[in-house]
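Sequence, please.
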């Protein structure tokens, strides 16, 4: 995946999953089928959401109407689930925006950012799962969980997957280790001093060092992206 610069493929896929998860969670959060009841004998067909209900009861192909949730369903557990899913929605939105900057901007692409994004995503998933557990445990008799909650379950699964995909960035992917002889990294240009080929005796002496030439403002930190060690000395870096 060549777009978005040097961001890892895992981070790019994680961003895509988070965008999809955000859309699915919004769809499940706002639709009216967190639980439903459909009986042919009583001609009852309605769905209950977190905020509204849809009533299609009556004769075959009767028109559906949206309305307020009846008082018989306005229990404490409904308010708890509303709160947990609202928190989850906010906590999904925030890391999605952060991950967008993480993938698209080199300055935002740090290990700390990856850890923060992954942590928030797991908290969002925990909040959503808690709300779903409370909802399922309180579904009345002759009712069943609806497809709106299914969308939220799918969104939660994508969030967890996206967070797991960031683990390689935290453990292995070193975005700062990209300087090469003659290469550039933002405001830095790295060249090499002219030296005779080192002998075996002085290969590990400190006479072979990179020359860092600032390409940006004078106040730009010149050495924060360098990872200078003896292995690079052997390569003439």
């Amino acid at each position: 995946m060549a777009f978005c610069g040097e961001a890892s493929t895992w981070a790019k896929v994680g961003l895509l999953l988070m965008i999809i998860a955000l859309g699915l969670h919004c769809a499940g959060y706002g639709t009216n089928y967190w639980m439903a009841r459909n009986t042919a004998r009583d001609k009852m067909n309605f769905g209950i959401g977190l905020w509204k209900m849809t009533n299609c009861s009556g004769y075959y192909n009767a028109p559906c109407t949206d309305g307020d949730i009846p008082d018989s369903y306005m229990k404490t557990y409904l308010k708890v689930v509303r709160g947990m899913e609202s928190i989850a929605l906010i906590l999904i939105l925030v890391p999605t925006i952060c991950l967008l900057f993480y993938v698209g901007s080199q300055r935002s692409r740090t290990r700390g950012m990856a850890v923060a994004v992954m942590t928030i995503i797991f908290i969002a998933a925990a909040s959503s799962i808690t709300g779903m557990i409370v909802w399922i445990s309180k579904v009345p008799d002759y009712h069943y969980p609806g497809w709106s909650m299914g969308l939220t379950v799918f969104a939660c699964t994508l969030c967890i997957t996206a967070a797991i995909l960031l683990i390689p960035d935290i453990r292995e992917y070193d975005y700062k280790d990209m300087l090469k002889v003659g290469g550039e990294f933002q405001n830095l240009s790295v060249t090499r001093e002219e030296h005779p080929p080192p002998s075996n005796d002085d290969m590990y002496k400190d006479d072979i060092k990179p020359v860092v030439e600032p390409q940006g403002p004078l106040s730009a930190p010149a050495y924060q992206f360098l990872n200078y060690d003896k292995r690079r000395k052997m390569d003439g870096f």
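The mean pLDDT is 77.
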